[in-house]
Write a structure and sequence with these properties.
This is SGNH hydrolase-type esterase domain-containing protein. InterPro entries: SGNH_hydro_sf. With 475 residues, the protein is of the alpha+beta class. The chain is 20% helix and 23% strand. It has a six-stranded mixed sheet with strand order 1-6-5-4-2-3, sandwiched between helices. It is globular.
Length: 475
């Protein structure tokens, strides 16, 4: 199938800027080294997808990512890596096979695997499940304990692997440099650490998931040591996201992977195997049928959210609602093209409170509350289930550090019986605290949180125990 080798440079959105691979500041060898194929552990998923493509069936791809995938820093969203890949597919594969690719971007800025693990069902329909899933959360899932920090990613991965559509998963691994100046010393993550260092590579190998590592392009290891090699167009001028050249490099890696997969389309039949035993998480907390109420929509203005859990505001003081349908909920409001949106109940006053009521179905559950938009300050918030204030979970605004606009799930109880319950949240002290209550989730009993994952009490994102000790706030 020589036609598969057609390059994207003459027709994709970046055709006037990146006309060949040299313009991308990479070589074919660099691209090849950055694609870590692990399909021997689960080869049937690639075979199943290939058979669908060659039969001319429509293919649906979803992207589960953070702000990089949501379009952070990029004005023209046709230049995002998943859109560039889609342009290649529908220009090259669709005319030959009749297999058209549609892409749904479920990415949410500042959001990690913990939220998606419990709320993914709110954004996809059982009648329209994906065939390809790109998971781009390697910079959103930060922490300091190898294996334990990767537990939410493993839970999310297993949820996606268990979808009835039997999708092919790719991990897309980016890097959060936070480069604030021209000098190398201004890079807060100079060794390019991300979730790969905390267990994601092992997850990819264990579950047979190909890893597309842009980190290997930006920060190639030399004698075992990584150092950022930043070329123009790779890191966005907002200092927070990858730029257009970075997106094009990632897109080309994904294109090369699928060229390889479809070229070796020899086996027509395969036997589906059971998902492997968990690698890092305990089997007792595997998330299979979670419930989620979340005032969140990754496709604001394009689709509605199907809440899997009903929650009612029982009483409140000094909390006001940001309706999810309101344009104020949309990231980048008012001018940005981004469609990820976050509504809920917001307060920035001391002494405010809000109480939610809900019905817990049969069996035991863990109950968590999803919080967003806490800024670093001296304010404090407490949250607890029912009348158990003595066991309240407390967070200070100062403990949120400089990592603002993050979505985090905090579990307030891990052994909740069926029946009517309430969650109450109160802000305390004389200091202002900025907070958005974004959702409530139910998962299997026994979840108290994930040790070492997205810790509060640090000034910056951390990627190792050494980082954690360095950036941990002193009381």
């Amino acid at each position: 199938m020589a036609w598969l080798n057609q390059e994207p440079f003459s027709f994709w959105q970046d055709r006037y800027v990146y006309r060949n691979i040299k313009d991308l500041s990479v070589g074919e060898e660099d691209i090849t080294k950055a694609i870590h194929i692990n399909e021997k552990a689960d080869p049937c998923r690639a075979t199943t997808l290939t058979n669908k493509v060659l039969r001319g069936e429509p293919i649906k791809m979803i992207v589960i990512g953070g702000s990089n995938s949501a379009g952070g820093g990029i004005k023209d969203h046709k230049r995002l890596f998943h859109q560039l890949f889609s342009q290649w597919w529908n220009q090259v594969i669709f005319p030959r096979t009749g297999s058209k690719l549609t892409v749904e971007n479920l990415s949410l800025g500042g959001t990690g695997s913990d939220f998606f693990t419990f709320c993914l069902q709110n954004f996809i329909s059982k009648n329209d499940e994906p065939n390809i899933v790109l998971i781009e959360l390697s910079v959103n899932d930060y922490g300091y304990l190898h294996g334990k920090t990767a537990q939410p990613m493993e839970l999310l991965t297993r949820r996606v692997l268990s979808l009835s559509s039997f999708p092919l998963i790719l991990y897309v691994s980016l890097v959060d440099l936070v480069k604030k100046g021209a000098s190398y010393s201004s890079i807060k993550n100079p060794r390019c650490h991300n979730l790969e260092d905390l267990g994601q590579r092992e997850l990819a190998t264990h579950y047979g998931i190909t890893l597309i590592s842009w980190r290997d392009i930006l920060c190639p290891p030399v004698n075992g040591i990584r150092k950022a090699y930043i070329r123009p167009g790779m890191v966005n001028r907002d200092h927070l996201h990858i730029d257009v050249k970075g997106h094009a490099q990632v897109a080309l890696m994904i294109i090369r992977y699928f060229q390889n997969v479809l070229q070796r389309a020899e086996q027509q039949y395969c036997t589906k195997t059971a998902i492997k035993r968990p690698l890092f998480v305990d089997a007792s907390i595997l998330v299979t049928n979670p419930l989620c109420w979340a005032s969140t929509n990754p496709r604001w203005g394009k689709s509605t959210v199907h809440q899997s859990f009903k929650v009612k505001v029982q009483e409140k003081r000094d909390f006001s609602e940001i309706p999810l349908k309101s344009i104020k909920a949309k990231m980048g409001f008012p001018s940005d093209l981004r469609t990820d949106a976050f509504g809920g109940w917001v307060s920035s006053r001391q002494g405010s409170f809000i109480e939610y009521s809900f019905q817990v179905p049969p069996k035991k559950w863990s109950v968590g509350i999803v919080i967003r938009r806490m800024r670093q300050n001296e304010g404090r918030v407490q949250m607890w289930l029912d009348e158990d204030k003595k066991d309240a979970v407390a967070i200070t605004g100062k403990a949120f550090g400089s990592v603002h606009f993050q979505t985090r799930a905090y579990f307030v109880a891990s052994n909740v019986s069926p029946g009517h319950h309430t969650i109450r949240l109160e802000t305390e002290g004389q200091k202002i605290i900025s907070i958005l209550i974004n959702g409530i989730v139910l998962g299997p009993a026994g979840i108290n949180g994930f040790e070492g994952y997205k810790p509060t009490g640090t000034l910056e994102k951390v990627w190792s125990l050494e980082d954690y000790k360095k950036f941990k706030l002193r009381k």
